[in-house]
Specification:
By secondary structure, the protein is α/β, with parallel strands linked by helices. It has eleven helices and seven strands.
């Protein structure tokens, strides 16, 4: 294994706590079964990921309402009250990020699936995002993980050698896509476990 000189962070679920439940659990009066049905059938993960790849939020909303007019109020909430889905920073991982950025041996960047329309809200709210050397935002690139091109954009933009980089993401699908391009992958489960996983790769914290 080559020596790691670049760490690539995912954002949502790794450095930032994002979860649509924060909005909708209250809307559904705590009824998780009804809320899950809504996520499985109306405002689905696949639908949201299409906006992460740059599809306009208003257009996506109106198209979904046309399909499910009886759900209009709930659909409009998804992006209309999107900020409610943002939790706080994941402090343990932010501490790891800080240590890596302060270390002279590492380049630290981010690769995130995120709508370009909502990402400015995160930039304003989370100061640590400005510590990074750069962030590749899927919505700005009009593509997203796990598609090969967004990893190649990241590698080329920051002059990264795949074998010398590690990518940290909470979605195993995205890790496998990175590994297919010879980028080392860490499937994020907790900040505590991440410390051990980085040490296994001989990364100093």
């Amino acid at each position: 294994m080559k020596k790691i000189d670049t760490v690539i962070f995912d954002l949502g679920g790794v450095l930032i706590d994002w979860n649509p439940e924060y909005l909708y659990l209250d809307v559904f009066n705590g009824d998780r079964e009804k809320m899950q049905w809504f996520f499985d059938n109306i405002c689905t993960t696949d639908w949201n990921e299409n906006q992460d790849a740059g599809y306009p939020l208003q257009k996506a909303t109106e198209e979904r309402i046309a399909l499910f007019p009886e759900q209009e109020e709930l659909i409009r909430m998804y992006y209309g009250r999107w900020e409610k889905m943002l939790g706080g920073a994941i402090d343990g991982t932010v501490s790891i990020l800080k240590n890596l950025i302060e270390h002279p041996n590492y380049k630290v960047v981010a690769l995130t699936n995120w709508s370009h329309e909502t990402f400015p809200i995160a930039l304003e709210r989370f100061n640590f995002l400005h510590w990074l050397e750069g962030i590749v935002v899927s919505g700005e690139e009009k593509t997203r993980k796990p598609f090969k091109d967004i990893y190649e954009i990241t590698l080329n933009r920051f002059n990264i050698t795949p074998e010398n980089a590690v990518f940290i993401d909470d979605n195993l699908r995205n890790i496998k896509a990175a590994e297919a391009l010879d980028i080392n992958g860490i499937h994020f489960e907790s900040s505590e476990k991440l410390i051990d996983q980085l040490k296994t790769l001989e990364i100093s914290l």
